Amino acid sequence: MPCFMCGARQTDPARGASPWRRGVRADRQVLVCPRCQTEHDWTAGLDRCAACGSASLVCRLGEVECRDCGHTREAVRDQDGPADDRDLVRSGAQSRDSGLSEEVAAALSRVLRRGPTPD
User: Fold this and answer.
1) Is the pLDDT of residue 84 over 90?
2) What 3-state DSSP class applies to 71?
3) Residues 32, 5 contacting (CB under 8 angstroms)
4) Which has the minimum average pLDDT: 22-31, 60-69, 72-81?
5) How many Å apart are CA 41 and CA 49, to the nearest integer?
6) What is the pLDDT of residue 57?
7) Which of 47, 51, 93, 98 could disulfide-link to 89, CB 3.0 to 4.6 Å?
8) Where do the domains of the chain lie?
């Protein structure tokens, strides 16, 4: 899942806690990369807890839970989501991800061209 703000893709993490942050937007789980956390008010576009106003929400198993106060509610959304939320990634992110299929194809070629297996 890419960063919902810039579209950056996660790479293999180093040991320890991930620097990426989770949030909820339009009752969908989203991720925010470390760069966007420092360069933007990354909580501005996220849903807030109805009980305490926190943006520390997680969405799982059809529920949205606040990590600060524990308040839970049912996640409600359309099949396609709201019209303005169909593309959670802001402009410019698609151009960075346009080569994803080519990267995947190249990686598969490298892995699958190991040579014939011995009988």
Assistant:
1) no
2) coil
3) yes
4) 72-81
5) 17
6) 93
7) 93
8) 21-112
Q: How many residues does the chain have?
A: 119
SS3 85: helix
Query: How far, in whole angstroms, is CA 58 from its chain's centroid?
Result: 12
Conformational region of residue 61, where left means phi above 0, alpha means psi within -120 to 50, and beta covers everything else: left
The residue among 78 and 47 whose pLDDT is bigger is: 47
What dihedral angle (degrees, nearest 10) is formed by the CA atoms of 97, 98, 104, 105? -170
Q: What are phi and psi of 4, to 5 degrees?
A: -70, -15
pLDDT band at residue 116 using 50, 70 and 90 as cut-offs? low
Query: How far is Cα 43 from Cα 41, in angstroms, rounded to an integer?
Result: 6
Residues near 25 by beta carbon (within 8 Å), at least 6 away in sequence: 4, 45, 46, 47, 85, 88
Helix, strand, or coil here: 35? helix
CB 43 within 8 A of CB 54: no
